[in-house]
Amino acid sequence: MSAHTPGPWMPTLCDDGAWMVNTDGDIIVVGDNLSEADARLIAAAPDLLEALKMMVELYNHANVNAFSNGVTDPTGSIDEGDVIASRIASDARSAIAKAEGRQ
Q1: Over the stretch 3-54, which tens digit does the pLDDT of each residue have?
Q2: Looking at CB atoms within 10 Å, which of 25, 39, 60, 89 has the fewest?
Q3: Biggest alpha carbon distance in the chain?
Q4: Is the peptide bond before 8 cis (omega within 30 degrees of 0)?
């Protein structure tokens, strides 16, 4: 899959009342059924993807052993926060793969 069109992407209301998402010189998407909320969400996609990538990178550099197995102390106690963080990172990786055409 090729790389997405570089941003920034901007939601724009057309003269005919339709919404489109565009960047300097390129139309990303346009449609009569595209709502303002959808146009804003689509326009935010490149920023959201980059933020997810940074979050996963931060997660990977955090206490990897604690996050990977949920154990945070020598007694084997499982920290609920670590388990939740692991699930969030997994979901983020899946969303990134979907956005990059790997899923």
Answers
A1: 888 889 999 999 988 999 999 878 988 888 899 999 999 999 999 999 999 9
A2: 25
A3: 65
A4: yes
pTM over 0.70: yes
With tokens 């003269």, the residue in question is 15
Secondary structure in 3-state letters for the chain: CCCCCCCCCEEEECCCCCEEEEECCEEEEEECCCCHHHHHHHHHHHHHHHHHHHHHHHHHHCCHHHHHHCECCCCCCECHHHHHHHHHHHHHHHHHHHHCCCC
Integer Cα distance of 68 and 63 in angstroms = 9
